[in-house]
Protein 1
Amino acid sequence: MAKIRDILIIGGGPAGLSTALHLVQIAPQLAERTLVLEKATYPRPKLCAGGLTVDAEVLLSRLGLDVYEVPCARAESVYLQFEGRGLRVHPLRSPALRIIRRDEFDHWLAQKVRQKGVEIREDVQVKAVHAQAGTVLVETNGGEFDARLVVGADGSNGVVRAAILPGQPLQTARLLEVICSPQENARHQPDCAYFDFFCISNGIAGYSWDFPTQIQGQPRRAWGIFDNNLLADGQRAPLKGQLAEEMTRNGYTLQESDLQGHPLRWFDPRAEFSVPGVLLAGDAAGSDPLFGEGISLALGYGKLAAQSIRAAFETGDFSFREYRRRILRSSLGQTLCLRWLCAHILYSLHWSWFQRLVWRFLKPVVLVAGWLMVLNWGKKLK
Ligand SMILES: Cc1cc2nc3c(=O)[nH]c(=O)nc-3n(C[C@H](O)[C@H](O)[C@H](O)COP(=O)(O)OP(=O)(O)OC[C@H]3O[C@@H](n4cnc5c(N)ncnc54)[C@H](O)[C@@H]3O)c2cc1C
């Protein structure tokens, strides 16, 4: 017989855990009726460079959480460049980017959720979701659940979106990442995070990155490459060779055996984000098409999902028709729409001369656009 739960959150990453934490904050009586289902056990690996922006820190601090508790590497500046030359961003706040490991960060967040009284069941994999009139049936490897509502926070490869919106086009980016030891002859500075957009002129709508990181206190570099596939035109340019070349140029050797890949589902303002009884959050709803940034956005989605859940219980209307409007009108939706637009412009104008112009000469324009479009939406998220 199916177990009955009012609120089921599927996926215990930043989006699902943030939904739970925001429920505790704005509707504690509902948090008690919430269950998070996570297919893995913490601390679980998650392929991610771990760059945490100021918006993530703002959202966490408003939940009363101190991200300083999580081990991190600090990038004091960010270098945005094309073919090795570009502009250094040295913000007033320090660090410019905090780089966490996702196994540690998500485990820490899950502990906070448990301490606040929300139940998380690990090792429970959701296999199917059926949204029916007035209830949502969830099939897992540990039996069935009947829920009043479900939050699909199961990431880019999740089952919830596929189950509730099967006909919707998939907009996914490809990402590859490798963790290396710092090299003595490396060209890059140890406390700087680098983004190089050289690959745009080779048919890749994205950039390679080189971030400082740490594993158990030992300094490491996280190298990777992002392609949102906007330049694919039927055939996708190979990524591995481009990353290997860029690493070699900077004093590193790509060990192919250590290379890992993962898709990232990106946001489209025309997409749907819910059906009656089911809401999507985080990558399942759609992440950043411009840089592939998603941790802060997943935390932000959690806040909006919690607000819609509270409204549903207050009004008795579980259609979630207002969720799309709530997202698009929020500062989270606005940054995502601007990033979506910006990604289409920046990556479509793929000529080398244009990219050189942007990254080497238009520093004030890039800084203002970054300030307005990429950062500082967190404190405006009501
Ligand atoms: C290589 C790479 C580098 C990245 N670098 C950055 C970066 O530097 N900064 C940044 O902000 N973002 C980065 N991102 C994006 C970021 O990782 C995601 O946007 C973020 O993890 C989204 O959080 P989420 O909670 O929506 O999904 P996830 O973090 O994917 O969490 C989903 C959770 O659901 C669980 N789950 C999945 N399916 C099921 C199921 N069927 N049943 C139960 N549980 C399930 C998973 O185990 C997981 O715990 C990167 C992504 C990649 C691939």
Protein 2
Amino acid sequence: MRRSDLFATVSKESVSDASCRSEELMQKAGLIHSYGSGTFGYTHLGKRVLDNIEQVVRDEMDEIAQEVRMNLLQASELWKQSGRWKNFEAEEFFHFENRDDKDFCLAATHEEAVVGMARSFVRSYRDLDLTVYQIGRKFRDDHARKGLLRAKEFTMKDAYSFHQDEEGLNKKFDDMIKAYKKIFEVLGLDYSVVGADNGSMGGDTSREFLACSEAGSDTYVSCLNCDYGSKDLDLEECHECGSKLEAVNGIEIGHCFKLGTEYSDSMNLDFDTETGDKKSVVMGCYGIGVSRLIAAIIEQNNDEKGIAWNSNVAAFDTAVILANGEVEDSALEVYQSLSEKEDVLMYDGRLSTGEAFHEADLIGVQRKIIVGNSFLEDGLIEIEKRNGDKEFVEASEMI
Ligand SMILES: [Zn+2]
């Protein structure tokens, strides 16, 4: 994309009202627009980043679950069946009456909706196991703070699994943990996995994924050597590898729960077993805070110049910078040839060369390709990586 065509609102001024580094950089880099009250819009630049993260999540989820889409506008009936409607204030959801005096809410979570959907398809043991997921918006009437870290409207990946028994659930739960680890590694996150034993089902019934960051609101101990973490702050050494633990703050980026039959009992989601008995479906649920991930990645990956995310996340891998108007045709040729393989932003002269450098670093471009004086004099194109490493190559090599 040519910079002169890009809808971007990159700011030259510092952002004074940001409460954390990610909020500051996201506003400065023009990724998001704050509408106030914890609601945000994404510019084209921000949407590209969100799409990249969604794609990483989708690639892993498609291996173990089927993508669906559920309703955001939800009538109260299913919530009354699960017993959660009466808690809507504690559960922080937006609720209202429509013009027919019917109760509705905006989806804060989808356990009720997914059970409602599964109930019309699951009849017998032959229909199980089943795992579905969606990536979409959620609404929570929470105290918004720290930009995308805690917003009233946000994007989540939520998955739900349905099983005949706990053995099926345990297997899917392990598959999810593996997929989550892969996702967070591909996104370039340093994270811990915190287990919780909730008792009734034996063993760990939940796993929380925390990205280590000062901006996080959870305190936990993290192993210096592996991904083990715990909210029991009195521990001295890692249960997995025996290494030292340190107390840190973290951002919750994912959570896996073994729900058991809590929802299927209250909402009558059952199936016929092989022997003809009726049994409640055993469930698991698995969330990832997709829009929050943008903030978590930035919190962990930034430097004095701006955002330093990896090429799986960056809106543009490469910037081609036209640094001398006399070589415009050659710069365009380089841009067009690279664009066939990767996402390239072409600084086509609308910004000064200095401004282009500054902005490319701020928005997290991985490498800058400069077509200017050295091309004019020696036919060489300069490649500069984010860490400052430079090399010169023949134009023909690049094209
Ligand atoms: Zn360890």
